[in-house]
Amino acid sequence: MALYLAIANRKGGVGKxxxxxxxxxxxxxxxxxxxxxxxxxxxxxxxIILLGGQGWRDARDGRQTISDFFxxxxxxxxxxxxxxxxxxxxxxxxxxxxxxxxxxxxxxLMIDEVQGDLFLDLANRAGGEKLVIDLSHRFGMLxxxxxxxxxxxxxxxxxxxxxxxxxxxxxxxxVIVPFRPDYVSMMAIDRISLIAERVTNxxxxxxxxxxxxxxxxxxxxxxxxxxxxxxxxxxxxxxxxTGVQLAHRDGIANAFEWSxxxxxxxxxxxxxxxxxxRLYEEFSGLVLNGGAHAREYAHDRQxxxxx
Length: 307
Ligand SMILES: Nc1ncnc2c1ncn2[C@@H]1O[C@H](COP(=O)(O)OP(=O)(O)OP(=O)(O)O)[C@@H](O)[C@H]1O
Ligand SMILES: [Mg+2]
Fold this sequence. Notes:
Elements lengths: L2 E5 L8 H14 L5 E5 L5 H17 L4 H10 L16 E2 L8 E4 L5 H15 L5 H13 L8 E5 L6 H9 L2 E6 L3 H15 L4 H5 L8 E5 L6 H13 L11 H5 L8 E2 H5 L3 H16 L3 H15 L1
Parallel strand pairs: 1-5, 1-6, 2-4, 2-5, 3-8, 6-7
Helix pairs in contact: 1-2, 1-12, 5-6
The structure holds adenosine-5'-triphosphate and magnesium ion.
């Protein structure tokens, strides 16, 4: 059964798509895992990084996007899932030239409108105050439908907090929250942490030990200045932090660019290789044991929350 990772932060430009793609490359190439990246964002950045602009347009024209998947499967849960997924995505190979198993459920410019339409659809038929919960629940069930076909499902969330982002956070075994070491980014972490732990305020959050949280915060764009270090330490007082901190690197910025010719992972990431390796080491343990530990952990948290 796949391990589900949501890469989320309501703040834009903190590296959600970058981290999603880096993890997808590392876990498929070094971990040898079957990885599906689900692009939840209407900006479709992860899709364009993995397919290029034309590749993404071809997928869209072929109705291979998350919007098509939701619209078709919302009422008819038995629809064949494979047809929405682009196989063999990405422009990266292992050092020996082997292509990883890396598939993509491409993003859609229409995902925000589709959420509105499906909301109205549900409202017309059901209505009632549970409507919003029902809608997110339904999106979550649909996202979990890939769990038998992959080892890891990485969900690159949009900035902000749409229904689908709520759903991704709800169904994730782990939520990774990239942030920049500045005050605006730090404030955004509080909100996402409450949602991930399903508590209403920071007092309730503080009752959950850091080691038992379902989310973890990942410092990105770190330049190693003293003030940044203090900010990261401050985040670590309230929230769990990853051991890895991603530096601001040209190699990571350049990896955003898709190339029509497949390259080795070393050629793609250049001076970002060290960060990529550390990121992989941070999360590979969760995945290599089949995600059992993370799922058990998520299950414990669900039990604790419903008690
Ligand atoms: N560690 C890094 N070093 C250099 N550039 C980076 C790094 N992380 C991200 N970037 C660059 O910062 C920009 C924003 O990153 P990215 O698009 O991944 O953020 P995001 O959180 O997904 O944004 P959005 O909220 O708009 O979806 C991109 O141009 C990306 O290449
Ligand atoms: Mg993004």
